Amino acid sequence: MKLRDLVYRLYAHRVEGRLDLSQGPKHIGVILDGNRRWAKASGGTTEQGHKAGASKIQELLGWCSETNVEVVTLWLLSTDNLDRPERELVPLLGIIEDAVRDLAADGRWQVHHVGTLDLLPGGTQLVLKEAEQATVGNKGILVNVAVGYGGRQEIADAVRSLLHDHAARGTSYDELAEIVDIDMISSHLYTRGQPDPDLVIRTSGEQRLSGFMLWQSAHSEYYFCDVFWPAFRKVDFLRALRDHAARHRRYGV
């Protein structure tokens, strides 16, 4: 073992030992950013970058399973990404499909799609549906795979669903205008019934949400990490938990 690796492990163990997991986040959202830039810096192709990023997902979930995390939302493909050239989008969708199949085959996680299925190719839709069906009842972490996801689109879809629901009940628009509230809209989100994220992590150094979980993250803590997603390490994850814990203590004063 190289000296650098040994020092890294000792440091990670030290950080982990000082964490109070009872105060840790229950729901973590992750914006998996930096695959292409990691590939460029490494002399590889964009496809290789996306594959490296996909392989990191199981590592992250393993780290989460060692804590009290109950829900993880992974932003794999935004609605904006669907406008990419076909030569780039098709391989990316294939990598995402393989990643979702791997999550379902693992047997530990419960997979749930968040996003607009109708925007995705039929093959991708089928993979997502089959993964959900195959993992119903699994007792491990609930893994939301955000594919074809956009925060504004989610809110629009929630409002549309709410309107259709009440139209079917015979509620007039005037009546609905009087009773509609935050809870009603929340009950039509992709993540309905789930706790809102306590912590949102974004890799690659970018410090913006880009539309990720706009409604749900109103009270979330944010942790922006400088490393590209394929290079994200356990110590980076532990630092995010440490940062969340420090803020939690401050707010508790």
Automatic annotation (TrEMBL):
Record keywords, A-Z: Magnesium, Metal-binding, Transferase
Co-factor binding comment: Binds 2 magnesium ions per subunit.
Record: residues binding Mg(2+): D33, E221
Cofactor(s) demanded: Mg(2+)
GO CC annotation terms, alphabetical: plasma membrane
Keyword Metal-binding in record: yes
MF-aspect GO terms: ditrans,polycis-polyprenyl diphosphate synthase [(2E,6E)-farnesyl diphosphate specific] activity; magnesium ion binding; Z-farnesyl diphosphate synthase activity
Alphabetical GO biological process terms: polyprenol biosynthetic process
Root EC class: transferase
Cross-referenced CDD domains: Cis_IPPS
Active site: D33, N81
UniProt key word Magnesium: yes
Amino acids binding substrate: G34, N35, R36, R37, W38, H50, S78, T79, D80, R84, R202, R208, L209, S210
EC number(s) from the headed UniProt entry: 2.5.1.-
Entry superkingdom: Bacteria
Family statement: Belongs to the UPP synthase family. Z-FPP synthase subfamily.
Function: Catalyzes the condensation of isopentenyl diphosphate (IPP) with allylic pyrophosphates generating different type of terpenoids.
Subunit structure and binding partners: Homodimer.
Name of this protein: Isoprenyl transferase
